[in-house]
Amino acid sequence: MQTSLTEYLDELVKRYQLHYDVETNKFIAGQQVDIYAISIIEHYRNVLTKKIQIDRYQEREIILVKGFENFIEEREINDFSQFLINVTQELVTPSFEVMSHTVNGIMVSKEGFAPEVITTAQKFKYGKTFFLGIKGWCDIRLLLIDVKNSCVFCNAKGREVAPIYTFKKEMEVIKNNQ
Which Pfam families did the record assign (predicted)? Predict the structure, then answer.
């Protein structure tokens, strides 16, 4: 049984709701994304009691998922990559309190990706430090999910989370729910 695009996106929403604040069909940086999820994790060190904190910082992770019904050509990946860079400029605010921002840009295609799109995604790299890293940094993970062929492609940073999106586990979850 082949997973449809809406089934896959619905499954992602269910999965994200466990650890993220999730919104669907949200406009960001002038474009609509199917899923917007954000997680803010706060770390701190304390002495004696939790009220006496030595230092604290946050890690923020933003997930932007955009679904496509059609076959993806190179123009779409270039537009999506530029959109992710624009999002970092809009949503990421350097601060002494926020250590890292990670933006996960995920393209989900029902019909697959052209070979040059996969190559472009694998070579994509974006990282930015703010005030020599004192005000944190920002990285972009780019993932391509091919629903038709049950494949996941990603850039180097995306390898950190790629196993979460693999289809063997996803197909087992969908079959168990039916």
Answer: DUF8052
